[in-house]
Every structure is written in C-alpha cells, then in structure tokens.
Design goal:
Layout: H1 6-14, H2 21-24, E1 32-33, E2 39-43, H3 48-53, H4 60-72, E3 80-84, H5 98-115, E4 119-123, H6 125-131, H7 138-141, E5 156-160, H8 163-166, H9 177-193
Parallel strand pairs: 2-3, 2-4, 4-5
Antiparallel strand pairs: 1-3
C-alpha cells in the first residue's frame, strides 16, 4: 500500500487493527514535529503520557529529551520529525513484541519515505534494533553514523541513548551518559546543516 502524504498514513494508522494493541490504546501516537525536518528521531513505543496525549515523548523522558535538544540547538518543532517504532502503547510499558513492530513497520517506512530526512536518530536499543544489526550494543555504537542501510540509501542513521535511561543517570561529568548524549545531539545538528 502506498500513501500520498502523512495525513493518509495517519488515517490508516488510526484504523489499524493489525495487532492486539489497538484494543487497549487510548490514542494512536503518530508523530510530532515538522514534516520538512532534516532530522527524524525514532523512539521505541508510546508510554502512558504519550497514550493520553497522542504525541511522542511528552512524559518525563520527553521533557528530558527537550532539555537536551535545546542545549544542542535543535528546535523540536522545526528541526525534528518524531515517530516511534510502534504507534500504540504496550501494556505495562513493556518492550514492543516482534509482531507489534512488524505490524507498524509499513507505517514507519512510509513516514520515512514521506519526510525524507537526511539523518535518522535511533533513540534507544529498540529503535536501533529495528534498523541495524541486532548484535550491536547501543553503549558501543551510540554516536556513530551508519550509512547505506538497505532500503534507506542516502540517509545517515545514528543511535543515541534513550532519555528514559538518562533519567536514571544523574552525572553530567565528561564521559557520562548525559554528556555523551549531548555531544551526540550536537554532532547530529552539525551534520544536518552540511
């Protein structure tokens, strides 16, 4: 199935019953930000706050992400298009099941093909595993660009640590997870401007 624009994709997602998550969701969490953004950020799955509001990254982790974006000079509403690997909240905030990710994969691919970002930020291990080798460890490859990914030629992918992980890491010392994430976001901003 091909889509003309993001509204068509969102309409299809709203009607989706491809996996059981549609039964328990309050809202589909489709996207946020600019459809003209050079940077696309892909997260794992909606949490409780996202399910209530219908927007990605609006809970505690989202607030922390916003702080880091601001420090890096990235405007969430203008410079970024945000989506998740799945569009409905898994119960108990568990990791998305393989079948759930498969059910949403065509929608995420359509979002990428429509937005045409220059860079895709893979926020956390679950998002990273959707596009890169599943044997990779995010702690080892965060901040590295990956190119020539089949089906996504011309797009640079870069994993970063998920802000929910950073909520448990309070240090901002050089080399700490928070410090590294800020450096990664600054690198992403600079690369997007080239």
């Amino acid at each position: 199935m091909s889509f003309e624009n993001l509204k068509d994709i969102e309409k299809e997602v709203q009607q989706c019953k491809s996996c059981p998550l549609y039964i328990s969701r309050n809202n589909v969490v489709f996207s946020d930000g600019s459809n003209k953004a050079k940077i696309m950020l892909i997260g794992e799955a909606p949490g409780a706050d996202e399910d209530k509001q219908g927007k990605p990254f609006v809970g505690r982790a989202g607030k922390l992400l916003n702080e880091f974006l601001k420090l890096a000079g990235i405007n969430r509403n203008e410079d970024l298009y945000i989506a998740n690997t799945i569009k409905c909240r898994p119960p108990e905030n568990r990791k998305p099941a393989k079948e759930e990710k498969a059910a949403c994969e065509r929608f995420l691919q359509a979002q990428i093909n429509t937005v045409k970002p220059k860079i895709i930020v893979l926020c956390g291990a679950t998002a990273m595993e959707s596009f890169l080798d599943k044997k990779l460890k995010i702690s080892k490859v965060r901040g590295e660009f990956f190119e020539n990914i089949k089906g996504y030629e011309g797009i640079k992918f870069i994993p970063i640590l998920h802000p929910s992980y950073l909520l448990r890491q309070h240090s901002t010392e050089t080399g700490s997870p928070r410090d590294l994430t800020l450096k990664d976001l600054i690198k992403i901003k600079k690369t997007a401007l080239i």
